[in-house]
Amino acid sequence: MVRKLLAMGLATVAAAALAANAGGGAAPSGAAPLKIGIIGSGHIGGTLAKLWVAAGHEVLISSRHPDELRALAKSLGPKAAVGTPREAALFGDVVLVSVPYGALPQIGRDLKAELAGKIVLDTGNPYPQRDGDMAIEARRVGTGVASPRYLSGVRLVRAFNAINSDDLASKAHRTGEPIAIPLAADDPEALAVAERLVRDAGFEPVVVGPLSRAHDFDVGTQVYTRLMTGPQLRQALGLK
């Protein structure tokens, strides 16, 4: 019953986001806030926690050492809580996974049941010198192909992997045209929710395509970590 109600709520959020996207605007300000579980609350995860709390969402930040996150949660106020990765997976309507890429297989195994069927935003990038041979394979096939192998059963969106954490913090809600964040997903509803969360963080979502297109903004590409507006990113990637 709980999952059915959650699905209905996310469907409403996704419908609002799709309508906003069709109309070229932001999601309605009255859209219901989301509960977001954050697995990995370092530079990217911690910054997004701040931005999403400021937008009215509830977050549960987590890591292998949750006690180290209590000061951050306290600074964010009553909409932020601390827990374990399992608690974050259970808490979230949406789950952000922002960990070293080499940790994805373990997360996929340990939290398979908790993450099943959930919208998951994956920010990780494979670096062979840190993540080993699996990163070599992920770079070969692209993260949009590799990540679903490790996070099976989720509604995956590649998001927030192509921006540095300093830029994520300093360029959010900047004056003028917003910085673009490329997205790739196979699930339209998950993609719509991700678009809303990109806007709520102060950026412009640019849908690149299905997960198979995520390689277009993987580490090492011409657009990786480059600060571009929506029109600039679309032109660079040959999007209409």
**Integer tally of domains:** 1
What's the overall average pLDDT, rounded?
91
The strand count comes to: 8
The number of helical elements comes to 12
Question: H/E series, N to C?
Answer: HEHEHEHEHHEHHHEHEHEH
Percentage of β-strand residues: 15-25%
Write the CATH homologous superfamily. Answer: NAD(P)-binding Rossmann-like Domain
CATH class: Alpha Beta
- By CATH, the topology is Rossmann fold
Question: What's the assembly state of these chains?
Answer: single chain
In the CATH hierarchy, the architecture is: 3-Layer(aba) Sandwich
Q: Which segments are poorly predicted (pLDDT under 50) over 5 or more consecutive residues?
A: 18-29
Radius of gyration: 16 Å
N-C termini distance: 41 Å
Query: In one word, what is the shape?
Result: globular
Verbal overview:
- The chain has 240 residues and is α/β, with parallel strands linked by helices.
- The protein has one domain: 3-Layer(aba) Sandwich (Rossmann fold).
- The protein has twelve helices and eight strands.
- It has helices at 2-23, 43-54, 70-76, 85-91, 104-110, 112-115, 128-131, 133-141, 143-150, 165-170, 188-200, 230-237, and strands spanning 35-39, 58-62, 80-83, 94-97, 119-122, 155-158, 180-185, 204-209.
- It has an eight-stranded mixed beta sheet with strand order 3-2-1-4-5-6-7-8, with helices on both faces.
- The radius of gyration is 16 Å and the shape is globular.
- The N and C termini lie far apart (41 Å).
- Mean pLDDT is 91; it is low at 18-29.
